[in-house]
Fold this protein.
Amino acid sequence: MSVGRKWLLGVGIGLLGTMLLIASFSLGVFVGERGLTREKLQPVGPGGVPAAQQQPAQPVPPDKPQEGNQVPVLKGIVRRLSRDLITIETKDGTKLVQVSSDTAVRLAENGEREGSLDDVKPGVGVAVIGRMDPDARMLRADTIVVFPLPQRK
Amino acid sequence: MKLSSSNIAKRMRSFLSRRWLDALISLVVFAVSLVVYNATLTPSLSYRSPDGNELATVCYQLGLAHMTGYPLYTWLGKLFTYFPVGDIAHRVNLMSAVMAAGAVVLLCLILRQLTGRKLVSALVALFFAFSLTFWSQAVIAEVYAPNMFMLALCVLLLLRWARTRRRGYLFAFGLAYGLSMGTHLSNLGFAPAYVLFILLEDWRILKRPGELLGTIGLFVLGCLQFLWLPYKASMLVDLPMARNAPITLERFYTYTLGAFPQMKFAFPLVAIPGRIVIYIELLRQNLRIPGMLLGIIGMWGMLFKDTEKFYLLVLMYLVHVFFFIQYRVFDLDVFFIPAHMLFLLFMGYGLHCILELVEKLTARIGGDEATISKLLHVGLAIGATFILVVGVVWQLRANYARNDRSQDVAINDFYENVFELLPEDSVLLGKGGVFGYDMFYYRYVYDVRPDVVMPMAVSGGRLPGRAGWEEGAAVFSTEWSDLNKAKRTPWSVPRELIDHETWYVPRLVGQNGIGAGFGQRRLVLYELQEEPRELIVRRAEPEHEVHHRLGAVELVGYDLGDDSVAGGGCLELTLYWRVLRQQRILVGAALDDVPLEVHDLGFGNLPRYVAETSPPRSGTVVEEYSVVVPSSLESAVYELRVGVVDLRRQARGEPEFIESVVLTGIELGE
């Protein structure tokens, strides 16, 4: 056996060993973290793209908020309240936001403190952090920050 | 050495018989694959792939597809559009089937060359043909099946060159490799493996510049197809694509090698183990655990027996897996098809190694007894064939239902009704860019209803506008242009085109993506109106009273326009609901077990309607719409069923009524 061939075999054995090692390590990490489950292992298999996950096969515009970002998706003035809906006037027009008992309210006046949905009144300024419910086609508020409006003179 | 005439005749007969057998096996493999693919082929447009409808249209137009352009795919697709079956989309779908079947044959030939076993190669290739992901791409308009054909062709030509050292194979490889960039640019990643293999096989090629330059020259010739990009850039409809239209060198780079930067290497190092496990799971779904074990054995065996080929295949495999485990896309499974194919080659080789080992053992057991040895040998061949046939049938049965798209007529049925329903000179809005081709297809390919204005169907980077839009024209949309969405996508209807106080009144509902369940894009035609329809009435007077409680709602009654309908026609339905519990409610309709549609109660209008009109608290919700009956249904009498859909199962794309009620019988005619 030539030296070159020995090298090729040696590197090949190393390559295969490394592959098996990485695969075993990854499986070990996965099982250690989540247990023996297949949940979340299938991004989307053949048979369908969930509408909510349908993303474009295109470049994401730079201003598109990325997953996990806690940036307000809506800012404006509260105009109307009705049960679990708030009508907010924004610079892009009137928007509806759905609230629930899980919605956190923070008051951003003289520092930040916790508030309640009672603090969300017509006329106050709000920034809403939440997520779109694609089926209800409405923003569901996780957090509402109530802030004072600049006084007009 | 002199050859007698009888010897020549004998050799010729043997040669012919071998060639004939190879050809026959290839033909059978091709036919079996194609028959199955054709039986499960999507009849026309579909939402299975986000780009499929665009690709079908672009092939017909000889236009420019989204990044990275896919010139070869477009040209091949154009050839298939001349094939006289079905509509244009069907013909482009058929291209995937034919190319996929061709790829399976090439795979069979590669395995034949690697193992020398005809039948085993054919059965292993068929095992791959009916694997979950590859099959899913063979029945829709997408680039992956043609790309697999090109990839398999490249590998086969290179192996043929390695065996024969005929430079014609190397030249052909160079050209095929260059051309394969036009079916998927990720093929470029295989270059290091190809170069290493050529050098390992014959490093003296470096001393033969003619051969080397010829191969490289033909590769470049194949790549020249990308001149198509600047030539056709003005035909781009998609706004982000048009902004990067490949008309300068910088944009040309962005459109090709620099495409989708946010998707590449998108995961931090700590996420990589999880990504590898996702890949292993996808491999398991396609080749099963026995296949994975055989693949590992095959890698080991090939390293010692065919070292150069091992390096070719393992490097191709590793580069591909390394790149795509770090690729952030929702349809990740399809990107691993080449890796699955390469692993399958190892799987076939692993089987060959085991058979070889067992053959040696049986020969030893048989000893000098030729008859026993032969019997054992035959028994082994029959056993191996049986196991492989079982494997192929297993794949076929396990994956048939998930890949059967033959009933997916939702888009065509919906748009046929849409174009029938739209008044003269009306305006039809919808999703733009790549995702709008379900609508644009009818305009670009068949020029359906030229009087209807489609503002989103503009090319060359122009913004959709009001050109041709008459004052007071009736406006319809297939897309709910979200009033509450802070950031709109480049594919949304521009704000300038719609009044933000407008109401989206549902007129027509199409079948919601059969095969994948309700989870696909919804097909709803809304009429844009200044005032809402009366959505909640104090007192409902349905034609047929039902008063059936379905979870959080009660179906008070219904009106039905006609109880007989032709396939592809519409049922005019009015449903009267009483809300018993405040929560999100999904309701749907079905004919027997065939789902027709599912929607949020009130079609998304309910919260705003309640907020703005203060309707009676105990009023009845009235939904009035037409629902499309799939043309794929056979003529018979069906039960019209209405029910409430399980939210969680719906989210998983497995719609199921929690509770439902049969309203009446519907006679479906021709």
In short: DSSP finds one helix and seven strands in chain A. Strands of chain A lie at 74-82, 85-90, 93-98, 104-107, 113-115, 125-133, 138-147. Helices of chain A lie at 3-34. Chain A touches chain B through 64 residues (CB under 8 Å).
